[in-house]
């Protein structure tokens, strides 16, 4: 517009307002990166005793679609619980702990979780590191965590690779949990009742005992959680597990600790030194169908078990 020209005196909005325009409804476009993950909790899986068998663990988790070929979490909002005993007897206990810690972080980022319970071998490894050859009152004379650890399959390579973050992680593990009416514990024992009448009380009592770092107290904790076979007797077993379920909740108890071949009397020792290879097809349900045993006896050429709960059938 050149000099001397003026703008016409025209209103910016014509009389009667702007003409009607069609209404446009915007529909949100889903973000493909989110993958359309369903709301609510995902499926529940449990893993039995691993005992340093890192490669077998990866194979078992991959077979269930929980990790990918690289060993990374691939299960979205799935919930995964390890029932304890990550080290000893097998060749790579620290590698197992590292994998579980890695999966815990990856699962949380994906909307699921990977958690772990305290096994008696975690108590044993913590004790061996903290107290070494310090004498403890074993109830049958003097003993030491170091001697007991070596006797129960302690691997010197695990001790050499054990770092502070491994120790801190183990010392904070819960002793028990409940998921979808399943009471999850490591050991097939009623000793949990001696530490509290609720899941929270038991977990707090175990954590506080470890924090006090008294050798005799930690030994007593280890000794009690090493007990087994509380639910095996046809009459006393169901009664014992019902007491635990009534106290802590749940309709079924799931445990590791006692290898299924050992539990069934197919082998005479947990190390499987008897002749013959035990046959384990999957979890063992017993005690009036109230108990699920998940230790497949990987240390005795059995099977490292990973199972979805509730069990099919």
Describe, in short, the structure shown.
The protein has helices spanning 54-63, 93-109, 120-131, 145-151, 156-161, 164-171, 199-212, 215-224, 236-248, 260-263; strands at residues 44-47, 79-82, 113-116, 136-137, 142-143, 176-179, 182-185, 252-255, 284-286, 291-293, 306-309. It has 313 residues and is α/β, with parallel strands linked by helices.
List the helices and strands and how they pair.
Elements: E1 44-47, H1 54-63, E2 79-82, H2 93-109, E3 113-116, H3 120-131, E4 136-137, E5 142-143, H4 145-151, H5 156-161, H6 164-171, E6 176-179, E7 182-185, H7 199-212, H8 215-224, H9 236-248, E8 252-255, H10 260-263, E9 284-286, E10 291-293, E11 306-309
Parallel strand pairs: 1-2, 2-3, 7-8, 8-10
Antiparallel strand pairs: 1-11, 4-5, 6-7, 9-10
Describe this structure as you would to a colleague.
The protein is of the alpha/beta class and about 325 residues long. The strands form three sheets. The chain has a five-stranded mixed sheet with strand order 6-7-8-10-9. It is about 30% helix and about 10% strand. The chain has one domain (about 40-310): Metallo-dependent phosphatases (Purple Acid Phosphatase, chain A, domain 2). Strand 2, helix 2 (about 95-110) and strand 3 form a beta-alpha-beta unit.
